[in-house]
Amino acid sequence: DPILLQLTAAAAVLRISGLSRMSTAAASTVGSRLCDAFAAGVAAVDPESLARRSIELLSDVQDGEVLRLRIRSSAGECRDFDVAGGVGFVAFGKAAGGMACGLPLARLGRRFLGGVVLAPAPTRAERSAGLGFRLPDESGLASRIQVFEGPRDNLPDETVLTGSRAVSDLIDSLGPGDLLVAMVTGGGSALLAWPRLPLPDYRAATRALSTAGFSIAELNAVRARLDA
């Protein structure tokens, strides 16, 4: 990712108190450690890796048998689920694409009921650089995941409404023995929306509050009453 490369380069040339008075060798060591620390921080929050660590199958997947699934929350709490039916996934927010890439589709097999991903659309430059996410399809099950690329300006559009309806349809299709796993990251409220008023009015209200200096907490307090 060019942005990460730029940040890594910036970390290498950071000047902290006293760094300019160090020897060249000492300064190089500090710069190297800064880069290592930055890289470690990025790796720790990589959405695909987090998803792989957060969703663990504790039993083999066999038709007719109870499937045991362990979910680790972002706070580190674990909860085990015994699933008699199938498993569906919903991911929305800025890191939704990366999280979806970490789903254990191959191990779930027929027990995978489908999924919906709502992620911000990549910019033209990102598309040109091949930075958009692609779901791995070695299992042949990625076709069961619907992907919707919403706007990057935090203002829901028709794509968001279509994606939100797909989420609702997936939930409605689940039975008593099924499990829905929802993976949510920042920016999700702009990518999963079901306005109670016409979309242009909802967008205008969101834009007015944002440009008037409302905090995100205040903005969400209003949107929670405008959104079903």
TrEMBL record:
GO cellular component, one term: cytoplasm
SUPFAM superfamilies assigned: GckA/TtuD-like
TM regions (residue ranges): none
Listed Pfam families: DUF4147
Residue ranges occupied by any MOFRL-associated domain in the UniProt entry: 36-227
One GO MF term attached to the UniProt entry: glycerate kinase activity
Protein name (record): DUF4147 domain-containing protein
Organism per entry: Macrostomum lignano
